[in-house]
């Protein structure tokens, strides 16, 4: 049986995917993982490739979902996105990083979509550029 916070997180991701579909985003992949990190949802918004970070918090949480995205998390998402771009040879494709913030309260889930929430950091550890996945 999954822990309560994991159930809440999965419910948030499921709701985020439905929300993005309602916005006419084409979902390409969920929970893309590589040795460098993970991207919760990868989709297309028209011709733009979108890497989506989904953050779910309980209403009683001390921080908002958006506040929980720190530089370390951005670096991990950027490394995973770099790996995905390399795997598909899509470096010429326009892309962006979105955030779907999910708050679980007594009434259900409240979602907020933040397009272009963050960008590739200048470096992603050991001074490497994010577009160098090796």
- SSE ordering: HEEEHEE
Stated plainly, the CATH topology is called Trna Endonuclease, Chain: A, domain 1
What Rg, in angstroms, do the CA atoms define?
A: 15 Å
Strand arrangement, major sheet: 1-2-3-4-5
What is the count of DSSP helices, taking H or I runs of 4+ residues? Answer: 2
**Basic shape:** globular
Strand content: 35-45%
Q: Roughly how many Å apart are the termini?
A: 37 Å
- Detail the poorly predicted runs: none
Number of domains: 1
Give the integer mean of the pLDDT values.
83
Helix content, binned percent: 25-40%
The major pleated sheet works out as: 5 strands, mixed
Protein name: UPF0102 protein SAMN05660653_00456
Keywords: Endonuclease, Hydrolase, Nuclease
InterPro entries: Restrct_endonuc-II-like, tRNA_endonuc-like_dom_sf, UPF0102_YraN-like
GO molecular function, one term: endonuclease activity
Q: Secondary-structure blueprint of this entry?
A:
Layout: H1 4-22, E1 26-34, E2 37-45, E3 48-58, H2 71-88, E4 95-105, E5 108-118
Parallel strand pairs: 3-4
Antiparallel strand pairs: 1-2, 2-3, 4-5
Family: Belongs to the UPF0102 family.
GO molecular function: endonuclease activity; nucleic acid binding
InterPro entries: Restrct_endonuc-II-like, tRNA_endonuc-like_dom_sf, UPF0102_YraN-like
């Amino acid at each position: 049986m999954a822990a309560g916070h994991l159930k809440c997180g999965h419910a948030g991701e499921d709701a985020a995917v439905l929300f993005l579909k309602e916005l006419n985003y084409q979902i390409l992949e969920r929970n893309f993982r590589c040795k460098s990190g993970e991207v919760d949802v990868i989709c297309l918004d028209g011709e733009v490739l979108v890497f989506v970070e989904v953050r779910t918090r309980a209403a009683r949480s001390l921080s908002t979902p958006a506040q929980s995205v720190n530089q370390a998390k951005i670096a991990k998402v950027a490394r995973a996105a770099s790996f995905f771009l390399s795997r598909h040879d899509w470096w010429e494709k326009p892309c962006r990083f979105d955030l779907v913030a999910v708050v679980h309260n007594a009434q259900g889930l409240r979602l907020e979509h933040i397009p272009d929430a963050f960008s590739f950091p200048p470096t992603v550890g050991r001074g490497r550029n994010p577009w160098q996945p090796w």
